Amino acid sequence: MQQNTILFLGKYEGDNAAQVATRKAVLEAGSAHKVVLNTRWMGPDNLTLYPGMVSEAAAVVLAPPQEHAPAILSESMLAALTVVRETGLPFLATGESHGLVFIEAARSLLGLEHAGSAVFDEAVQDPVIHELPGATCAMHKVELEIVGDELLGPLYADVGRVVEQTDIISGLNPDYAARLTDVGF
């Protein structure tokens, strides 16, 4: 049976329901595909000191924090996300933590030194992340368009659009989407 290590990037918080659920989902996906997955937690400071740890992993998951991710933006997390992005490994960011990924890409690939989230800093110079229209901190519905690549496309060919319940309040500002796509992100 095949074995792989999945690297969880972020501070492990044993009482964090989102982290517990994400890890469980990853392990169940591995089991469904008859792959033994070992999970390893690594803080962003450690990853920037030991970037070789990423090369030992089959994929990286940005561990969902207790609080909304862009509010805890740190230089060590951005540096760790740069290391992960440059490896090209499969990568998953869940919940609000996806905002950190877009901020890192805007800073690194577009050279936008002051990219950030308008949700947590209304005066941010480059609001790469903004509040989703109609989003509240409470559960709400969001409609998503499913776009698949060569690998995932056939799995979702008949889906098109889905509606999900979520508490996500922020997303990529469309003013920056084309620029990120143009640089290969």
Give a structural overview.
It is a single chain. By secondary structure, the protein is of the alpha/beta class. It contains six helices and nine strands; from the N terminus they run E-H-E-H-H-E-H-E-H-E-E-E-E-E-H. The chain has a four-stranded parallel β-sheet with strand order 2-1-3-4, with helices on both faces. Strands 5-6-9 form a three-stranded mixed β-sheet. It has a two-stranded antiparallel ribbon with strand order 7-8. Helix 4 links the parallel strand 3 and strand 4. Helix 4 crosses helix 5. The chain starts with a strand and ends with a helix. The model has no long low-confidence stretch (mean pLDDT 81).
What structural class do helix, strand and pairing data support?
A: alpha/beta
Count of distinct strands: 9
Strand arrangement within the widest β-sheet reads: 2-1-3-4
Terminal Cα separation, in Å? 34 Å
Task: Give the fraction of residues assigned to helices.
Answer: 25-40%
What is the 3D form?
A: globular
Largest sheet: 4 strands, parallel
* Low-pLDDT segments, ≥5 res: none
Strand and helix order: EHEHHEHEHEEEEEH
Query: What is the average of the pLDDT values?
Result: 81
Q: What is the helix tally? A: 6
Radius of gyration: 17 Å
* β-sheet strand percentage: 25-35%
Pick out its properties.
185 residues; three-stranded mixed sheet
